[in-house]
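Contributing new records

If you add data, match the layout below exactly. Sequence lines come first and carry their own label; structure lines follow with theirs. Keep one chain per record. Anything else will be rejected by the validation script.
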Amino acid sequence: MSIVDTKLINCNRITSIEANSGNNSNPAYFTNQLDETLILNVGDQVSIERSFISEVGAGNSQVIEFKGSTLKEGQTIPYTKITPSEIRNDPFDANYRMGYYQIYEASEEEHTYDVKDNEAYLRYGYYINADDHPYYISLPRRFITDKVDTADDETRFTDRDETSQGMTHFSVQPDNFAVCDYYRYKTKDNKIIPKLKIDGSRYALYVLETTSFNNTTGKGENMMPYTPSTNASLYRDHTALNTWYPYNEIKKISIKEGFNTSSEIADQISNQLNESETPLPFNIGYEVSGERYLRTITTTVEAPTYRLFNCANIMSMNASNFDEYINASVDGGQPSTNSQLYYSSYQYIGVKRPELWQTGRAIVGQNQPREQINPNSTITRFSVLRGNRATSSIITMFEWSRTTLEQISAFLKAQELYPELFENLNSLTTYNQNPVITNTRYLHINKWGASSGSVDTGTTYNNALGADGYLPSNECLASIPLFIGYRKDEEDLYYDVDNIPVDKYAFGFATPYYDPSDKKYYVEIHPETNGIGGIPEQLFNEPDITTGNLEAGRPIGYDPHFTGYGTACVLLNSGAYIFNPLNPVSEQKIEQKPATTFEKTAKYFTQRYVGANNPVCQFNQDTNRYEFIQLHEALNVGNDKLAGDTGNSPVIPESADAGDVVYKFNPRIQSFGFSPNFKPYLKPKQVQLNYPSLPKSNVPASDTETNKRAFDELNENIQPYALFDSRSGIYIDNWGVDSENWEASLWGTMGFSYEQFHATLTKNNTLSKRIDNLNYQSLKFLTTNSEQATTDTKAWVSNAFNAPMYELGLAQGRTLITYQPTGAGPDAAIWEPLAELEIIPAIINKTESMSIPSVNLSKSMIRPYYTIRSNIIEDTTSNVNGALLPIVSVVDKYSAQGDFYFGNPSSITFTITKPTYISSITTIIHDPDRKFSNVNNSSAIIYKINKQRPPPPNILEEILKEEKNKK
């Protein structure tokens, strides 16, 4: 019989060798020196009596633990890098400007980093909306307006647009344009032209490869479109033929290691997205009586997702600068400063359909006589007779190769994302029916022939595919779409020229044509199978438009001009204007104190904001899901331009709801700033009603006030009942984690699924598509927009005074009748109808950002237990990580209180099988993945030692035994 001798040994991190030496780099690993060497004999038993695992936040059941563990090394994320140089921050420098730098160079780079469970990089791009504010300009455009530096009357606002005020000489083809993008507009000289719609559409931001602001930088030549020494203006006409990159940025998102509540995680993400910089004053300098003075004219502040971008303004993009640009004016061997200021206006542009822009410009042109202005096209190889237009194919000078076919195929496939380009074309006289996207695609082709025989251009013809009208021409030289047969079920099939089956299309659109004259194969396309009558008749105009054929040498392919079919682009604009006669209290000048002279300041305002000014990640306590909201810059109710003027009659008070977030239909244009998009700006329309004095004969002819009312009409450039709810925003298109590591990453832990943000790109999830309850779980670009509910529709029904009627009918415009007096008597007049006036009510509804919730619930417990490893049962110290030490206990995470997890006495007992001498005990706390746990310095383990000892001797028995032996 033996006796059990129990001993408890306290091993804690605070009194460990590591803690005493100041080594607190790994609190999960600690060694405690024993007071005396412990001898464990065979049969002794070791177990864990108590465990106290210290981790701040452990007692909170609503926490998620992050260790900072590396999931993948060497992950890369591409982004657009902007490198500024040549700073000019002296307010008295002639080239001083907002942003200060004179050169900006863009490049596509990659950032390399390690993916951790608590860190990830986001890549996000920017977009602007075609909204009701003056901070963008539709392209193409030659200049903003003329006579910007002289006192002006209101005609610069109220006149219809025309070429003398900056319009291009032509737009897209008036009989063949994308109906979804353009509407018909009447110019001042009574021409009817297609003009880009203002309908709230999103335009992704792109940045020019090189931007320079003066002729001393040495970079002006790099910035300009290709410009030869002869016929320079003919090439400068091709303003769109340059390199722009999708503008995006990357941002590291990091959550602190250890336990975080759900709200803490959301707040940390929101705070990092909204890290506002210190507001910075912008000063200008002037001289008075030989003394220099500084004056602050504005203050700016930026955040990671809300940036200031260089943009056009009326002084840089003016008529004289345009003339220097188009004439390729040179100063000191470089393009002149004024011409560079003009073209720098194109540093940032917005592109409505990025996929078409990218894939079209990736097509490598071939066999073009002027490749510099035809980078993405070729020409037709043979002529086609007018009589064969319905049955003839077209043989191009694209040489047959898999690479070329794949480039064209990518462009054709991208068109499926935008079915609106195939709709409503039968509203144009060119088309009797609409092409069907399932069996049709398009390439660009010039409407007019490749020589000057069919059209007098007013200049030497330059054989480009398309044009933007920066130079005069007697005809519109924009290209048109050529719809060709397409087989979707064959769009991924390639055939070598000697192995293509009969009646098959390579990549769904092409067959090879062998030309024995040069023994080469060329790409043949098939408009005869487009389902709408083959080649359009308007192409048959050589040698003249009545008897002509489609001649050999007609440019065909992808047209990179702003007028190319399917392309819609805008330009950033400051909105600044020197003198605004429609808003007479807001002339943009400052007083040059102490003098009494005034300086015009519009020239200094060369930037505008783009992005999301308050993006938020939040945790919804009701659904237990994380959500993203406010990735767009919302519209607000706003104020009238004369709000607060108490001397005005009638007084227009400041709106108490001015800051409320809203969406709008039929918004009214405030002349608070200027953009030619909205010409003609409208003044209130005075209408003589037959109301409120009835009957109409009761009102004398001399009384023109009783029934007079002023109505704000809808600006004709605003598309009626198009939804407006955003000025700009950001879209996240790269989350910095691959599919293999997604579940263990920050985003996976929060409950967002990989598929939610990496869905196959379709027509339902392009950037132009609004996010709703049908597509939020299958996105490619994460952004937000406002919410609209069916309960709002009653408020959409409004009267002519814009008051909501809360009816069950449909929102619609109203027609007012204006009256005039006839047959006037001494006391009364007969008022007869004079004219009708359509009033489309302005509709403003309060709203909030749509939330984009995680598909899954967030993970509340990732690592459900700790393992305790120790050398107390085996002296193994060869592995520095302690992975070879045996497990002596398991502590689950369901017994937390305060900042500790508590381990109860373990039922597991270890029996010593060989004599062991221990002078110190090493304890290691591991997670299930055998990595060190993220614990604090207060952890402790109480070891229990049961030693087997023989019982003490029986003294009485021994005495009796000795007495007996004596006898």
